[in-house]
Write a structure and sequence with these properties.
The complex is a heterodimer of chains A (372) and B (198).
Chain A (H helix, E strand, L loop, with lengths): L6 H11 L4 H8 L1 H29 L15 H11 L10 H17 L18 H9 L2 H11 L3 H32 L4 H6 L10 H4 L1 H14 L11 H4 L9 H26 L9 H7 L7 H32 L5 H29 L7
Helix pairs in contact in A: 1-2, 3-13, 3-15, 4-13, 5-7, 5-13, 7-8, 8-11, 8-16, 11-13, 11-16, 13-15
Chain B lengths: L2 H26 L3 H21 L3 H25 L12 H25 L14 H10 L3 H22 L1 H4 L18 H8 L1
The chains are: A mainly alpha (372), B mainly alpha (198).
Amino acid sequence: MNSGLDLELSFNQAMQGFGISSDIAHILWLPLPMLLVLIAAVVGVLVTVWLERKISAAAQQRIGPEYAGALGILQPMADGLKLLVKEDIIPARADGLLFTLGPILVLVPVILSWLIVPFGQNLLISNVGIGIFLWIALSSIQPIGLLMSGYASNNKYSLLGGLRAAAQSISYEIPLALSVLAVVMMSNSLSTVDIVAQQNNAGFLSWNVWRQPVGFVIFWICALAECERLPFDLPEAEEELVAGYQTEYAGMKFALFYLAGYINLVLSALLVSVLYLGGWGFPIPVNLLASWIGQSPDSALIQVFTGAAGIVMTILKAYLLVFLAILLRWTTPRVRIDQLLDLGWKFLLPISLVNLLVTACLKLAFPIAFGG
Amino acid sequence: MNISNSTELICFIILSTIVVCGGIGVVLLENIVYSAFLLGGVFMSVAGLYLLLNASFVAAAQVLVYVGAVNVLILFAIMLVNKKEEMNEVKGLKLRKFLSGFVCIGLLILIIRVNITTAWPLPGPKSIGEESTIRIGEHLFTDYLLPFELASVLLLMAMIGAIVLARRDVYFENENISPSNNIIKQSKTPLIADKSSN
């Protein structure tokens, strides 16, 4: 199982070479991947915001940002800086404590969920055994933050937006968890590393998307709904609710909501690629490629290539999905709140239950193809 | 004492302080919304205690069920009916508070006594870590099957009861609900209004 690059082990050995004990080296190592992933998440958001501006411009036959850096690539940085230096306003009759705590409670679970996103065999912060279940549990904390900021703003639109956000997030959590459960059943493990490893036997032919096409669609719809993206952006529908729970927020607190939304989008795309599109796997097995050019799969060169290809593949797949999400946002109309709840409870929930049942039957009938 | 042990001790002290103080706060705070949010914090720290015991699956389930479902529903209920109106004066409120406080302190003393007199096996059973998910599944489908199924039947009954209560217009045809006696507004509930008009 533990083949491939193990950076922690190498780091630990290098530190011991400097005469530092193994325990201390471990503590020195701990913040490094966390910092790296935090930076990766923020850079991912900057890229996504730029993509969103450029693609929306193309969809509306505009040019989009073009003066800040080449092709306007620094525009998201300028946006972020502007939000950073803006005045932080707390409305006079709002509840200051809850008003401040709300955005934090929305952002923290999303960033914590990056704990389980694998970019390679050993390239993740922590291979926790409950992997994907941790993400489902963490994402259920978010509605509390939304309700909190909606309530604390002392504004009817905010309260309505917060309630809508919580209702939407609860109703879409269930089909989401059920479709994840079908994948977990096939790979016999909750760990994201095992789920990816199980899909990488025969290149892109063994990806879960062929075995779980219905689950893939359900998961993608639910993930979009959890991210509150159009067609499901009812909690902040500007024609109805001004901006929902964000109405009273300004400056950095608003930026926290903004950041949480986009980090959640990138995270969802990454998880779709992990669960259904083979994660870090190369479309053609690397071992096969290595044997074609006459190299042993264990040689150092091939190992480095596998690691690099893994990171590139994960990000490439995720950003293809982000592109799809952005296209959807700028080309589809918003659904009504009753349509949204009908879709969640009366359509997606039964379908995902049937999907789970069919997967269980297929697992019993064809244990070879469905991971028996 | 090595690093991991002392980290564990510090985490335990912080978490249990949050649980105890938060629990007292939930009961004593005047503002019911604060109580509900604080309850969420208490649930989270209980999940943290489970994590310290190496029961990561139970911790995640605790967050998912108690924070993600129970607490959000409590908040929903509070926010949908949160009218700022004066409560009616309750007779003998001081006596009631005293009595309930007395009962609670009695229970606390009982638990402390049990805690002191029981001979706890030290060190406790070895934790099974990641394997716990498999073990929980095995137990739920063998020796705990009946309680598990009974609990799900109970939940189903509660759900059906809630639906029946919420959809009175469909299930109680002869009940006297009509727009004329001002219980409901015609514009808001067209389903009932239609039925009563013909």
